[in-house]
Amino acid sequence: MKFNTKFLISVIILSSLVGAVVGVLFSHQIAYSSSNFTASIFDNLKNLIPKNLIPQNWFEKATPTPAPTPAFYEPDLAYEQRIIDIVEQSANAVVSIIVSKDVPIFEQYYTNPFGNLPQDWQEFFGPFFQFNIPQYRQKGTEKKEIGGGTGFIISSDGLILTNKHVVNDKDASYTVYLNNGTKYDAKVLALDPIDDIALIKIEAQNLKTLKLGDSDGIKVGQTVIAIGNALGEFRNTVSVGVVSGLSRSVMASDAYGNIESIDNVIQTDAAINLGNSGGPLINLKGEVIGINTAIASGAENIGFAIPINRAKKALESYQKFGKITAPFIGIKYTIVNSAIQKQNNLSVDYGAWINSGSSKESAIISGSPAEKAGLKEGDIILEFNGEKITATNTLTAILKKYKVGDKVNLKVLRDKQEINIELILGERPDNF
Fold first, then answer.
1. What's the pLDDT tens digit per position in 335-347?
2. Active-site position among 165, 192, 195, 239
3. Which tens digit of pLDDT belongs to each residue from 361-372?
4. Which CA distances in Å does 401 have to 194, 235, 275, 327, 413?
5. Which own/partner pairs from 113-120 qualify as long-range (CB within 8 Å, at least 24 positions apart)?
6. Active site annotation includes 196
7. Confidence bin at 76 (pLDDT 50/70/90)
8. Is 312 in contact with 368 (CB distance < 8 Å)?
């Protein structure tokens, strides 16, 4: 076979070029980064190929554009330091509350149930009647710790916010321990009639306080800090988490079996334990946005806190009336849902349906704001000041946003006709 001379020369040149490229490439160390490895190939080829054969801009490397740094990013160290600073600023304003009570002392003694039988019977039957049964009798009382909780100071002269269920035993006494170990006897000033909020007082001056924030502006995902007397034993335990949910409604029970519905509470995954009740939930500004009040048993880090704006209303009420008042309409009602609508042939599947469930008692309380405003049994309150009443946004939950004396507008369905009724909220009676 005959070869063309030019063809043979081209093959020899091409083979030499490929061999040179491969040799250069494998004489260099392989990098971990694929982008660096590719760059080294281009650099070697650029040096080997004559400049007059291939345009040099074929091998120019593009300058990578750096990814923009988010404006909100901060180093972890600064984030941790912020939490440390807030804890240090807040710790001396968080207190432990110890609940004590006089409890009976029992002593054990023994009696022979056959000791009153005739003597000859006892002698005849002998050891069959010679045994004693243990009995117990009270021998005075002693003061013992029966529980504990947490609170936080909101005025330098010793005013403290906590949960109602921590201090609602009228027969108990309460001792407050500051973070430095100093203790004070505490007096219960006021209990909220519908919310798990209480005010207590110690006689002291120049105390550290916590600033109350605004719970209406909180967001799911924001960082929060919980401080409390965990398990009634570990004072000022700190846990950090996020706001996991808003407007939750839960049924909470205490150690005595009392059950209470708590509406529109904050859900958090900051660890809350028994004994944390009444402690503050704090944002990264160092402001209290909630009062820790309940945990979901059997769950992992699901806790609930009462929004601080409700406590601010309770505090305002106490300062104005000397007690915590609750707004009152004066009706008995059922929250309407699709099942209630179907069972009772109602025309809507939401609202508060005024009915007592009994023909023997009225659903409108005598002398109440409802009676004065002209509400009638069978009416369905659809909206409260423009806010729709539903199974997840109940009338009770909405009422907690208002104060005694507020004038509100109700959208009411009566005989399938919508009407508007103005009503001035009264004060909830103690026995209601």
1. 999 999 999 999 9
2. 165
3. 788 998 999 999
4. 12, 32, 27, 9, 23
5. none
6. yes
7. low
8. no
